[in-house]
Amino acid sequence: MHPIDWAVVGAYLVWVIYDGLKRTRQSNRVEGYFLANRSLPWWAVGLSVMATQMSAITLVGTTGQGYADGLRFVQFYFGLPLAMLILGVTVVPFFHRARVFTAYEYLERRFDVKTRTLTSMLFLLSRGMSCGVVIAAPAVILSIILGWNLTLTVLFIGLPTALYTMLGGVQAVTWTDVKQMAVIVLGVGAAIAVLVLGLPAEVSLPEALHIAGSTGRLQSLDFRFSLTETYTFWSGLLGGLFLMLSYFGCDQSQVQRYLTARSIDEGRSSLMMSAYVKIPLQAIILLVGVLVFAFYLFAPSPMLFNPKHEQQMRSGPAAAAYAALETRFEAAVATREQAARAAAGARRQGDLAAIEATARAFGGADREVAQVRSEAVALVRGSTGDLAYTDVNYVFPTFIVSWMPVGLVGLLIAAIIAAAMSTIASELNSLATASVIDIYRRLLRPTAPDAHYLAVSRFATGFWGLVACGVAVYASTLGSLIEVVNRFGSFFYGSLLGVFVLAIGTRSATGTGAFIGLICGMGAVAYVAFQHPAISFLWHNVVGAVVVTMVGLAISLAERRLAGDPPRRD
Amino acid sequence: MTSPPPEPTRPIGATAVRVIAIEILVIVLLWWAGAHFAA
């Protein structure tokens, strides 16, 4: 990287860490450390909610998805606005009025301590591992793209975050999240500007979008009702609704965000920010990927975007086959560029027959480029044994270091790091909260001065920071671990939502019913995931929530009947 | 179930209508973009 880019990244880190550390004095009691004394304004909480959800995986993965597949992934978020409305009238007032520190604390008041302990432990396990993945994913990409040592990259991202979170508590988390969202939005804006200005002078933006649109990349809506197709309107609206209800309603890393708000109305408003902004923002990030595709129609494009694998293939046993593919790729890309320029020219002249003919020619040329790329990916998979290999996550970072001007490279690297740090900080803070409030204070040491719990809270934050860095270093060498972590999360989320449906939505559910229901829900999701792997993971949340609710209610009613309780209306 | 003291809140009806209306608008825009740029 150029020294100016290093200076930009350095300035960002100093700014964020200093801002986090200066919040230390505001976090001198446990309620201040974990909940900011319930004093934060809705707009800061709202930006923190968004920053927590948008990790670096979103920034590099979503842009890569836009490059490869277009806007279809935006459907994943269609259930989010309705989820925010439902949460605004259910858990937000419930948790605020209950004056809880954690979502699971509420479950003890409603059910019993074993349900609280089980759900909190599942959260700690799931979120603790996923926090490591949130560090690992950008660390792997940045270390390959920039040539950094992987372990040092993990520590570069994880340790400063753990430090300001440990010392500054949730105040540091929230106010740095606000700044990090600004850096992310600025970075995305800069990327769009460079992409649009980087088009050839004779190709306008609408013409470039028409060319990209002719490949289907701008078609975002799929109305097929298919359980096996991952991104459809229905899986996003229904499956996504359950996922968003689970994540924003039952995951402590998000619940803690709106518990810090000044009032129920401000807590609701913080969620409504996501309801209004998330889908357009996601569409814009996907559009960045589409613009990268359009940009590379007219600029030299690598066959594989992962430089490490490129080098390995060029010097490995399959070097001859790879070289042959590169020759084919260069020819295919040249043909595609000619076809793209012809298509743009025909559209400029408004000649309908020529537009149709050139669009067909471009489609054929683009398919040939895609075919060569897929053969190259297959060659890498065969040579390395990594059957899940894909270079989609490297598309945007490769574009950044190859084509962004000096200074803006630093801004985009800072944006990727900001996206990671904002998520990590919220997760570390919530892991410490659940550890101290649900486990340590509740089960191990129920009476101690506030200063003692504050010290333990800081220690817990630092502990989870080290755990996350350790998981990140280990996970970066084991691609399958990321998949295991994500699968475990999907077993957990929908089932946890079911527990909260029983807690808040029914009067007859008991602790035993919720406890057994939770285990049955996770078992049902495991059955669907392993016996019917073709079914999209978005439906797992529906399965988990429904099974937990039905089994939980059935067992609760049976328990009450055996105990001779009068029936309650739900 | 616990009965915490009620805190006054604004009605959410108007917000709900706005949120759903804006989501529908965004989805219609996405549909239009797909149809327009594919043509």
Give an overview of the whole structure.
- The complex is a heterodimer of chains A (570) and B (39).
- Chain A has 570 residues and is an all-alpha fold.
- The model of chain A has no long low-confidence stretch (mean pLDDT 91).
- The termini of chain A are far apart.
- Helix content of chain A is 78%, strand content 0%.
- Chain A has helices at 3-21, 30-35, 42-53, 56-69, 80-89, 91-98, 103-110, 113-146, 150-197, 205-213, 233-250, 252-259, 264-297, 307-315, 319-349, 352-384, 395-403, 408-444, 450-475, 479-505, 511-531, 538-563.
- Chain A is globular and about 80 Å long.
- Chain B has 39 residues and is mostly helical.
- Helix content of chain B is 67%, strand content 0%.
- Chain B has 1 helix and no strands.
What is the assembly state of the chains in this entry?
A: heterodimer
Q: Residue share in helices of chain B? A: 55-70%
Largest interface: A-B, 37 and 26 residues
Head-to-tail CA distance between termini of chain B? 58 Å
The helicity of chain A comes to: over 70%
Decide which structural class fits the backbone of chain B: mainly alpha
Count every beta strand of chain B, where a strand is a DSSP E run of 2 or more residues. Answer: 0
Distance between the termini of chain A: 62 Å
The description of the largest β-sheet of chain B is: none
Total beta-strand segments of chain A? 0
**What percentage of amino acids of chain B are in beta strands?**
under 5%
Runs of chain B in which pLDDT lies below 50 for 5 or more consecutive residues are none
Radius of gyration of chain A: 25 Å
Q: Write the element-wise H/E pattern of chain B from the N-terminal end onward.
A: H
Task: Summarize this structure as a short list of keywords or feature phrases.
heterodimer; A: 570 residues; mainly alpha; 22 helices; 78% helix; B: 39 residues; 1 helix; 67% helix; 0% strand; rod-shaped
